[in-house]
Amino acid sequence: MTNSFGAPGSDRRYAHIVGWGMYVPEKVLTNDDLAAFMETSDEWISSRTGIRERRIASDRETSAVLGLKAAQQALQVTDILPPDIDLIIVATSTPENIFPSTASIIQHWLGATNAGAFDLSAACTGFVYGMDMAAQAIRSGSINTALVIGTETMSRVLDWRDRGTSILFGDGAGAVILQTRAERGGVLSSVLRSDGAGFDMLGLPTRGSTEIRSADGLADRQLHKMYMAGGEVFKFATRVIGESVRQAVAKAGIKLEDVNVIIPHQANQRIIQAAARGLGLDADMFISNLERYGNTSAASIPIALAEALQNERIHPGDHIVLVGFGGGLAWGSVVVKWGLVQPDDSTAGKIREQRRRAGYAIVRIRTRLRQWLRRISETLNALFGAQHPDDH
Ligand code: COA
User: Fold this and answer.
1) Does the beta carbon of 140 lie inside 6 Å of ligand 1?
2) Residue 386 above 80 pLDDT?
3) What ligand 1 atom has the least distance to the C-alpha of 326?
4) How many angstroms is it from 229 CA to the middle of ligand 1?
């Protein structure tokens, strides 16, 4: 990523969404499946949350794998080559490591050789934060093209003994590509907020694969599993959605009546309904796919966006609001004026698609080769012994 602040013409740049994609694992876990191993029922879950099923990642599907698939789809829509990407932001609470970042892993797998890459931690609001960061970088003239991904494998950090929390979440990924355009539109405004006083309402203290016992005697508390005070989070969410949407809409210089579609973080159908009532808007303006995916944290908004586009719920010139909320506590909204984006199915587009596929295959082969070489060198060292500095 190269910076060029103050580049000629940089005062007339808008960050438009030009590509989008989503991916969810194949495995479906229904409410009835949950009722088979915990004391709950489809009736209890669906009436209180609107959720009927969620997707669960296989052992081989990490957050980077899901994110990569969503990103590849987004690249295909916009028909750009991975080396054209300047910046990759991955919003996730379930990265594979503290570092290297999931963003760097995806950057490598895509062959995005000119991109900077980092993970962003803002829980379920992460994608909205990422959109804002990427749009600012584009509008400043610093970069031209950004890939923003929300990807989660929440099933790995759920305490399946906690029926109040585990029934809510699922796995998946969504991605958008933002790019510089001269015409007014794209990301018009954003409002990001945080209130760390609510740190104990929703959280995931640490990561790790073994159960950790806390020193304070709370023997059974699993520090690498998520905790949540459901009722309090519910009240917080219904309060901040309306406030945040109103602020972002005012900042964009439009009125609430000008908004065509709202894409809220998919946490609970009752939260969405309460937000619609609070804003005095028709609940049909809110995109909802909770029934099929549950809460996929940072992935929920880009997945809902990709589906809304696929279902032709969004049209050129529409004003859409993305609103996220969750752990931190953190919340935020972004107002986007949808541009005229057409998927490219020209011959040149098809040739570029072949080049992208070839690029992904080359990265896979190179990665395998490097792993084999490392293994061979380790075996040789074990057989013939590497000289230790102290031997001299
Ligand atoms: N199945 C059956 N019963 C359950 C249950 C489950 N999965 N989970 C909790 N219960 C029980 C409780 O034990 C309690 O029983 P009791 O009255 O005998 O003590 C009863 O149902 C009511 O529990 P309560 O926690 O008050 O339910 P609720 O109506 O507040 O709904 C949530 C719980 C989690 C669905 C709701 O609080 C919620 O959606 N909160 C927001 C959470 C959220 O979206 N978080 C993510 C934000 S990013």
Assistant:
1) no
2) no
3) 48
4) 9
Taking the CA atoms of 138, 87, 315 and 189 in sequence, report the sign of the dihedral they define: negative
Tell which atom from ligand 1 comes closest to the C-alpha of 267.
44
pLDDT single digits (tens) 120-177: 999 999 999 999 999 999 999 999 999 999 999 999 988 888 899 999 999 999 999 9
Label residues 347-370 b or e (16+ Cβ within 10 Å = b). eeeeebbeebeebeeebeeeeeee
Tell me the domain boundaries of the chain: 10-337, 348-391
* CATH class of this structure's domain 10-337: alpha beta
- 141 residue type, one letter: G
Q: How far apart are the C-alpha atoms of 101 and 64, rounded to whole Å?
A: 9
pLDDT of residue 169: 96
Q: Mean pLDDT for the chain?
A: 89
Residues classed as catalytic: 124, 265, 295
> pTM surpassing 0.85?
yes
Ligand 1 close to Cβ of residue 296 (< 6 A) = no
Q: Is the pLDDT of residue 56 over 50?
A: yes
Q: Which residues pair with 259 in a beta bridge?
A: 319
Query: Distance between CA atoms of 54 and 105, rounded to whole angstroms?
Result: 26
* Atom 15 in ligand 1: residue holding the nearest Cα: 164
CB atoms within 10 A of CB 142: 20
164 lines ligand 1 (CB under 6 A): yes
Per-residue pLDDT band at 23 (split at 50, 70, 90): very high
